[in-house]
Amino acid sequence: MKWLLAILTVMLLVTQYRLWVGEDSLAEVTRLKRELTQQQEKNSALERANRQLLREVRSLKEGTDGVEAKARYDLGLIKEDETLFIFLDPEESKSD
């Protein structure tokens, strides 16, 4: 009877160790769930960025309006007979 009790006690300790500390423990499962949530948030942000880039690519492929807008914004395109006005913030000019 003592041997049976000893064996059951050892088995209980082994299962408790695996539950709390070992591989596939509750702490590890919780950590993995947290990492999964973080990765899903990152994936969602990347999917939004990809959709925005896809819209931009389609706009650039479909006509000249998208290309012109991109050139104006990124490269400072000015057409013939246009006048460029640059407005400075008074606060920024005082600090220079």
UniProtKB/TrEMBL annotation:
Cytoplasmic topological intervals: 1-3
Which keywords accompany this UniProt record? Answer: Cell cycle, Cell division, Cell inner membrane, Cell membrane, Coiled coil, Membrane, Transmembrane, Transmembrane helix
The places in or outside the cell where this protein is found are: Cell inner membrane
Coiled-coil annotation: which residues?
29-63
Identify the residue ranges that face the Periplasmic compartment according to the record: 22-96
Q: What is its main location?
A: membrane
Q: How does it assemble?
A: Part of a complex composed of FtsB, FtsL and FtsQ.
The entry assigns this protein to a family as follows: Belongs to the FtsB family.
State its role.
Answer: Essential cell division protein. May link together the upstream cell division proteins, which are predominantly cytoplasmic, with the downstream cell division proteins, which are predominantly periplasmic.
Q: What name has this protein been given in UniProt?
A: Cell division protein FtsB
